[in-house]
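Run Capsular polysaccharide synthesis enzyme CpsB through structure prediction, thanks.
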Amino acid sequence: MRKNFALNTLSVSVLLATSGNALAIEAASIDLGGVQFTPTLELSERYDDNFREVGTNEDSSWITSITPTFVLAAKDRVNLYSVTYSLNSETYHSFRNDDNVDHHLDLDAHMEFTSRSRLDLNAGYDKVEETADTEIDGVNDKYHTYNIGGVYGYGAQSAKMQLEFGANQEWKRYDNKGGLNDDQERDTTSLSATAYYRVAPKTRALAEVRYTDYDYESSSSTLDSDATAYLVGVTWDATAKTSGTAKFGWGEKEFDDASKDDADKSMWEVGVTWAPRTYSTFTLQTRRGFEEGSEGAENYIDTTSTSLGWNHEWSSYLSSDLNYTFINEDYENDREDDTNRIGAGLTYELRRWMSVGVGYQYKDVDSNVAGESYDRNLYQVKLTMGL
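Sure, done. The structure for Capsular polysaccharide synthesis enzyme CpsB is below.
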């Protein structure tokens, strides 16, 4: 089965998220009796020369996107609560059967019971339709997910040591006709525990353990597994104009099916921000870890990714963004894909509540499997508005 994997089937919103997004509008809110209501609207027009991400017989189209977002937020001293809903309507002018609307709903809460005890909660719902890298070329892939989770923290922020305990449950279901991709429906349970120890005023060492259970809905699935990660590292805030987190360790994946080989590999997660000037920021993100495979193909994908970005504000109203990403996907079945992606964008703030941006993104995938290599160009102009 052809994979449907997030890092390779990057949505356009992700592809262009860092193109022309250096300056954010300052949207005003409406006070509804102590609850702040903040609406925003994003309109974009883009040309995509290979929106299905295929190697031959590419389909291209002008695409109009309309994305309204509505946020309700309330604050009770140090406690914060919010509800966010957004939809993304896409019109494919050359392929009207691919028109689609995505829905996203998030409920968030941050509660501080004492200076030592706090809790963050999140619940979400996403209904998505994808045109890129689908199971059957020319047929959109439809699915929805639910999730609920939280992180409990103990220890004052200024204390020598802090502890965090996390839990999350996600349900993923497909809405395709004929049961297409039903074998990828799964429930995912994640648990984590992290201990922080302050070694300097703005630097903390950390040790982290994660456990994830993948439970596939199909009774014939052989991909049910448990994944465990052991990480150590350091996190620092605004030290010599640099902040970030670096974690290194070991990951293990054990399958319930005894006929499948278990896997264990080194892993890492690094995110660093360097701001030599208040108006210029460089970012580095790199990670290595396991991603889920596909029934009848590969058991898992060993994925390594590295991203570099530069965000620069040329004035109070003009900013630019440059970014580069490299992804290596090493499949357990000897397939290997290398992805290179570059992007550039400009944002011009017309008003406090309005900005216009232009962006370009190029993506190239080189695979050792025939028919899986392709390239893709996107050109976009975007208008963002608030109150």
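The helical segments are 12-15.
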